[in-house]
């Protein structure tokens, strides 16, 4: 009686089963896979039994040389019971797949829960589950490795069709190598390798040199014992206490087993330990046996080193395949194991290199994040990289740092691209922006310099990142003045910051759009400078597009959603926790790009800690300034020696302003946590420079006095002139 339906059947089982005839060996025999031209004795879709069908020769036009038949099919009802079967090829001998038996009887006991769940999912959802590497149990206790696909039955039927492809040597090697090379994550690569090795044993593990696991370089033969970390282990099951699982280091004594495969004077070789007695003799201690031997049944092991060709060869780690001692490894199987590991070792090394690059970029990214705020501002930041696949970490960055004159700089940027090229550019732009801002340049001037830097870096001849283009990168710089409670910012193509004022009003700041950094010369325009009021208690949010950009939502709605989320931050909320909450509420799912957010809560100076005077540029200005400052210092109860130093300092700065500048002079005094900050502004554009003078020089004495009396001093430029500032310790 035929064991398959007619090839005319439109069911998935019929389509798969009818294809079996094309894989029959020349002159071989098989079940009536297609039911024959006449439909066979059973015909069509009649009741099909699980017994072997009638064997007959295969016509020449259906035979395919000397190929081995490796494809089979079964039909299951909704209770996962076999209703039809075609497993008549010799490769499936020993599988008891009789009609009426539960399909799970073909599975190893440990796999029953997982496979049953997969079968139920296909029954309920109607979506196929394709190409799962699976073991089937023969009657004699041995196992057959197949590629199993679970298909829903045709619309007119109920149940499932399960197709199985016996993993012939070349097919398995090809499928394994293809699967192993699909990820650059070192853990996933090791897991794929272990999953492929499971075709030759009961348990497979991949143990990597710790330097490989962390992305560091390895070279030459290791000296002495190596430190190994378990990177992958299959199958997924509950392991006994003391057994080494992924992420754990192997005991030091484990190298006694692996030394034979790794620590060689010549080319590393595969080592086979055939039985439990030999394994215990090699491992030595019961602790090491518990750590490495997966169970009583799996007693024999083959250790295959992962080797990169070279002089000398470089060993990345060891793959281990464990199997029962009554099924020893054949020479042909060992050859296949070595071939698979040799073919895929370079994938492990590629993943190692990616891991190193990813770690370096992420470390740089974290290094650029602001550490803390200060007395006048509170800072919190979140950096959330996209999934670490082949794209790696991107070029998003935020930074916040106090300027010497008491202001705080807030910077956010988005460099085009991912990986080391973007990271190098990101680091250079961040450090350059910090240096220029600390030197007193305004935000628009800093962006002009960054624009020139990006253009230079795009020059493949002189650029530091030849072969990588950062054109189109964006940046936004905001400066917070804690005395005037104002934010001054300029933007180069970046999304506008969001400001939430103490009265609850939230929205993006009105910033005129501007091309990104490195735009063509004809498109370049002066960078605008915008000034906004930020009273104490205001919250400013700077971010990159990955936080608000979602293909399904207009960008304006994304920014509005961010503004709404930031407006819920209560003045008493811990800002770092609030930043994480904002990201979780706003960031798109799935995350396609790096997410970066910087929240700044404005505190500022209290009104009683600052004082400002405007004086005409006349000969009596220094005396008037001393009178005003002296009275203020007495109210602040500043000790006499500090008060004398501040008065001398103010007198010298105001005298220089009267002598070398014109227009009104502004004197501002700020009481900070560290000392007193004195500022004198004028309309001049000359930069004071400290020089080593001769004994009889008249000029330059004021700056030398300034340098001696202060902890630090400097100059910042304004639209109307300059401000000379100096800090005196209290």
Task: Name the descriptors.
730 residues; alpha+beta; five-stranded antiparallel beta sheet; 25 strands; elongated; disordered N terminus
Rg of Cα set: 37 Å
Largest sheet: 5 strands, antiparallel
What integer is the average pLDDT?
A: 77
Strand order of the largest sheet: 2-1-5-4-3
Structural class: alpha+beta
The number of E-state strands comes to 25
What is the topology?
Layout: H1 12-18, E1 71-76, E2 82-86, H2 112-125, E3 129-137, E4 143-152, E5 160-166, H3 169-180, H4 186-197, E6 203-209, H5 210-213, E7 228-234, H6 255-262, E8 271-273, H7 276-283, H8 286-292, E9 298-308, E10 314-324, H9 331-368, E11 377-384, E12 394-402, E13 408-418, H10 419-438, H11 443-457, E14 474-481, E15 486-492, E16 498-500, E17 506-508, E18 530-533, E19 539-543, H12 555-567, H13 575-586, E20 595-602, E21 610-615, H14 621-635, H15 640-660, E22 665-671, E23 675-682, H16 701-709, E24 712-717, E25 722-729
Antiparallel strand pairs: 1-2, 1-5, 3-4, 4-5, 6-7, 6-10, 8-9, 9-10, 11-20, 12-13, 13-14, 14-15, 15-18, 16-17, 16-19, 19-20, 21-22, 22-23, 23-25, 24-25
Helix pairs in contact: 3-4, 3-9, 4-9, 9-10, 10-11, 12-13, 14-15, 15-16
């Amino acid at each position: 009686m035929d064991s398959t339906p007619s090839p005319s059947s439109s069911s998935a089982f019929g389509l798969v089963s009818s294809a079996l005839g094309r894989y029959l060996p020349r002159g071989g025999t098989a079940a009536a896979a297609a039911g024959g031209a006449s439909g066979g004795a059973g015909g069509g879709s009649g009741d099909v039994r699980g017994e072997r069908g009638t064997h007959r020769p295969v016509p020449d036009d259906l035979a395919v040389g000397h190929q081995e038949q490796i494809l089979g099919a079964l039909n299951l009802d909704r209770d996962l019971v076999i209703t039809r079967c075609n497993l008549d090829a010799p490769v499936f001998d020993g599988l008891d797949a009789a009609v009426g038996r539960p399909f799970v009887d073909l599975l190893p006991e440990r796999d029953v829960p997982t496979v049953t769940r997969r079968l139920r999912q296909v029954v309920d959802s109607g979506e196929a589950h394709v190409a799962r590497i699976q073991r089937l149990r023969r009657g004699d206790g041995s196992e057959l490795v197949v590629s199993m696909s679970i298909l829903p039955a045709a619309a007119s039927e109920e149940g499932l069709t399960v197709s199985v492809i016996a993993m012939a040597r070349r097919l398995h090697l090809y499928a394994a190598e293809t699967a192993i090379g699909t990820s650059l994550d070192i853990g996933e690569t090791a897991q794929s390798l272990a999953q492929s090795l499971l075709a030759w044993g009961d348990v497979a593990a991949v143990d990597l040199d710790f330097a490989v696991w962390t992305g560091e370089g390895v070279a030459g033969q290791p000296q002495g014992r190596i430190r190994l970390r378990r990177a992958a282990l299959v199958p997924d099951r509950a392991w006994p206490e003391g057994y080494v699982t992924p992420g754990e280091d192997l005991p030091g004594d484990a190298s006694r087993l692996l030394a034979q495969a790794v620590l060689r004077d010549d080319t590393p070789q595969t080592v086979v330990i055939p039985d439990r007695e030999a394994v215990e003799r090699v491992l030595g201690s019961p602790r090491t046996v518990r750590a490495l031997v997966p169970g009583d049944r799996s007693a024999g092991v083959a250790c295959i080193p992962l080797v990169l060709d070279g002089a000398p060869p470089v060993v990345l780690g060891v793959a281990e395949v464990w199997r029962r001692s009554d099924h020893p490894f054949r020479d042909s199987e060992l050859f296949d194991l070595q071939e698979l590991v040799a073919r895929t070792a370079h994938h492990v090394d590629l993943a190692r290199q990616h891991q190193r690059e990813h770690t370096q970029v992420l470390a740089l990214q974290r290094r650029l994040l602001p550490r803390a705020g200060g007395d006048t501002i509170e800072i919190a930041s979140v950096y959330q990289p996209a999934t670490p696949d082949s794209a790696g970490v991107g070029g998003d960055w935020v930074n916040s740092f106090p300027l010497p004159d008491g202001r705080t700089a807030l910077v956010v940027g988005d460099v085009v691209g991912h990986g080391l090229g973007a990271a190098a550019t990101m680091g250079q732009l961040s450090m350059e922006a910090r240096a220029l801002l600390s030197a007193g340049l305004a935000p628009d001037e800093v962006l002009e310099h960054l624009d020139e830097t990006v253009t230079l870096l795009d020059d493949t001849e002189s650029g530091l990142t030849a072969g990588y283009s950062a054109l189109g990168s964006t940046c936004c710089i905001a400066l917070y003045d804690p005395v005037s409670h104002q934010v001054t910012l300029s933007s180069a193509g970046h999304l506008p910051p969001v400001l939430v004022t103490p009265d609850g009003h939230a929205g993006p700041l009105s910033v005129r759009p501007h091309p990104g950094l490195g735009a063509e010369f004809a498109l370049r325009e002066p960078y605008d400078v915008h000034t906004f009021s930020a009273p104490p208690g205001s919250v400013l949010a700077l971010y990159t597009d990955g936080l608000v950009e979602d293909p399904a939502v207009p960008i304006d709605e994304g920014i509005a959603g961010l503004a709404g989320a930031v407006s819920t931050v209560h003045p008493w909320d811990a800002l770092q926790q609030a930043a994480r909450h904002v990201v979780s509420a706003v960031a798109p799912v799935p995350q396609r790009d790096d997410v970066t957010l910087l929240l700044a809560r404005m505190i500022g100076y209290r009104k009683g800690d600052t004082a400002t005077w405007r004086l005409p540029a006349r000969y009596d200005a220094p005396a008037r300034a001393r009178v005003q400052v002296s009275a203020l210092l007495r109210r602040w109860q500043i000790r006499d020696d500090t008060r004398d130093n501040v008065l001398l300092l103010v007198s010298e700065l105001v005298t220089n302003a009267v002598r070398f500048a014109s227009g009104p002079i502004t004197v501002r005094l700020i009481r900070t946590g560290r000392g007193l900050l004195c500022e004198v502004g004028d309309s001049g554009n000359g930069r004071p420079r400290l020089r080593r003078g001769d004994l009889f020089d008249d000029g330059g004495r004021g700056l030398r006095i300034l340098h001696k009396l202060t902890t630090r001093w400097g100059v910042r430029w304004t639209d109307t002139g300059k401000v000379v500032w100096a800090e005196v310790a209290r």
